[in-house]
Amino acid sequence: MKRRSFLKLGASLSIIPMLPGCAASNAVEHIKDGEVITAAHWGTLKLTVKDGKVIKSEPYKKRSEIYNALQYYTPDMIYKSRVKYPYVRKSYLENPNNPKPELRGKDEWVRVSYEKAIALIAEELKKTRMAKKGVFAGSYGWKSSGNVHNSVVLLQRFMNLTGGFVGGLGDYSTGASQIIMPHVVGSLEVYEQQTSWQNILENSKIVVIWGANPIATLRISWTASDEMGHHYFEKLKQKAQEGKIKIISIDPQYNETAEYLNAEWIAPNPNTDVAMMLGMAHHLIKKNKVAKDFLEDYTTGYEEFKKYVLGKGFDKVEKTPKWASKICGLDEKVITALADRFYANPTMLMSGWGMQRAHHGEQPHWMLVTLACMLGQIGTKGGGFGLSYHYSNGGVPTCKGGVLGGINASLFGNWDKDYKFLGASASQTKDGGAEWLSAATDNAIPVARIADMLQNPGKTINHNGKKITYEDIDFIYWVGGNPFCHHQNTKNLVKAWQKPRTIVVNEIYWTPTAKMADIVMPATSEYERDDITMLGDYSNLGIAPMKAAVAAVGESKDDYQIFSDLALYYGKNVYNAYTENGKKPLDFVKQFYDGAKKQVDAVDEVKKQTGEMEENEFSAPDFDVFWKENKPIYFESTQEAEEFTRFADFLEDPVLEALGTPSGLIEIYSKTIEGFNYEGCKAHPAWLEPIEYLGNATSKAPFHMISPHPTDRLHSQLCHTSLRDTYAQSGHEPVWINDQDAKKLGIKTGDLVRVFNERGSVIAGAFVTNRVKKSVVKLCEGGWYDPDENGNCKYGSANVLTIDMPTSELANGNISHTALVNIEKYTGTAPTITAFSDPKIAK
Amino acid sequence: MKKYLLALACCGFLYAGNIQYANEVKDVYLNYGDKKASGRLLPTNGVEILEKKGSMVKFKATGFMQNGVENVIYFNEKDRILVVAMPKKVKFDYKVLEEKNGVKKVSAEFWTKDDKFESALEPMMSKAKTMFAENCGICHKLHPEKEFNANQWPATFKAMADRTAIDKKDRFLVIQYLQKNAK
Which of A143, A194, A572 is nearest to A391 (CA)? Predict the structure, then answer.
């Protein structure tokens, strides 16, 4: 990595003191003509402003030649499909006590004043709480970047302060893996720093990209992308071209990454990776190619697993390569050859998360870790496994500098039985007369069980060794998320969504979820408010200012403003607690920056002592300078970080660096899970047949649909922009169909097709290709749900077709990649797509 | 031994029963005057200060040795909560106070610098709690302390620590807080 270019304080640079009382983003003067540097999930951006409007968006500093389409559509993110005013659904406004929830998504909307909307939300929330009904504010979603205007946390801060809420556990991305991995390797694994790219490039001989598409998914990051992942994939490509590293893509589709790297393509049937890996394990055992020392020193339970592989386990089936071949659709020789090559070469198994968003999704990563243990390369510089190379630029070495704090939700309100505010405390107490409120605050649910919870109040489910009883939810508040795109079996969600009396959504755009609410509050986009963000989730590469580029569109307000005003409705003391006595957004920006600067200064101090830095150099200027300069600051990685090898410390000293498992070792067999006695998750990794896959397909639904993360969106974000025009087929979400299948069906690229099963149907645009395996179709998730009168989707939202059931009782993750569908040429009149236009507004 | 008794006689009056708690990870020396530290004392564990000499203090740590591991003193019989940790090759003297099911309750004496000690545990724990609450609920909902057990917390916390503004020197303080309030 290049040494950072130090920002030097020139004499001409004047320092403008921040004027008290002018901190609110809506009150600041915006640049009329010029450039604003900001950052988004998709990287650091340079925006061109003309006459107070953003007219152009481009990357601020390119880190690689790999194109990131998401960086060019900021004007659409500001001006298209906006919710400009507060709206209330007509029936709800007429009578909130009998709001006709079945008309959600169908009723007209009535524009109301901001003050009226605030009063309505506050009163109805209070009414719900007084009636001891449940309030759901799990509010899952990717929101916008920024450590102040973190809409989900702002909502939960408000909810904690005003009586609590039912929250969500886990997430949709890694629902199964983040629960199973702590049992196996002692921590989350999916969100942890990976063996450095430097180590991979120097030491790996084979890089396997297993069910992942990093060239696509590294376009985005949870904070703001450092854009360095693409840089290292460029280097990987170079190594491959020099013949130094062999790259294998295991995936039912030949994705952008495989294409970019010219990778060898192995295409198993969807959802059958565990069988494939078991076949490999069997081969390794039979050929005595097993790292016995590693298994002995660092794992527990291998012998039990071995018995299972050899046909002496619970199902008495021997997991021969032949057995595996029948299930995964690969030739036996492909399976055994892969195992031999992995054993003979330093091999890094980079796995994506798609394989665990499937029925029994706890198994694939457990099995992958077990396979890696048998290969014995975990903790070496070029081998082992990694579950985060495709996400937020894992493997990019961590820099030493400062880390920003952020707004938090750790402020709990105490209320008496008449809903009088008694004060706030840093921890949740049940004293002070607030006990009745806590009824609505317990029992967080695994996020993907939302429809099940709404439909079955009082039901008790198993979850990772615990029991969870569903609350009776009567009020939902959602911000920064879009469940009508990310949740499985959309039509069932539509029904479940009719259960609560009140649904409030803060939204920037008229998303499918906003359209399904009772009250919609217009939220500013990140380009209309002052904020700050880290660059890089793992790398901590720098800090980027996110200065408001333009004034708020319409009557949209910052989420912080909306929740502050709701707090104020309940009383000045509630407002003071929420806002820490009236802090404006820019006060928080400064506070978080100053906290990070302190850490940077400490690092610089050490550097000055060791002569690495000149006395007058500094890497983090004072806040006012940083804000005025409007440029990111960057940090450097350390040698230690560049040499980081995941699990190396554990290998070095398994006593002091014990893993977080009960044994402190990698658990191939888990006594904890054995004790749960779950049908859907045994005590060691196992092949458990999915509810729907090609192995049990019928003529009614002969195709397996995979619904991976889209290349040209962040889930459903950006779907409404004109970027859609570059990938849509005849205006619809593209569905990839194998060329031989398409020929049989008489379908060609650009045709409208109906993709359907017993759960619903969508109209999509065909993309015929040999880059997807026969009998497999790909329809990316995140297309905006555009319901017709029957709730089927006119645009092509994949989740209309997916199954809403848990991976198993262990993790309760979603199973979005487990779905059989049928497909046919659509011969009716082309539907009018309304997903991106405003709903009916009453005159 | 004589010297030890003498020291105890001189300082016993001053220090006996003087329980102190490290507020950061502290270097531990086997002998007075050792140039190189042998191991570490972890924060929030109460140790008895036996003697002060120059800038150093001698202290007694009490805890448990589990499963035949003799280079670590743990906080309790079953969890991997570290009190004093030494690398594998370092041997130190210890006194067995009790033995049950292969777990020994032991005490051992070491030297450390006379700094970063506090006499009250509560303020230290509440500082740790605040750091946890203010930093660990920004990207996701704050996980309750009771969600994970004492063996799970160190790895779980370490996995995320680089994303937080928690200072490196305070990380083991937060880990110990989490372990001691775990499931």
Answer: A194
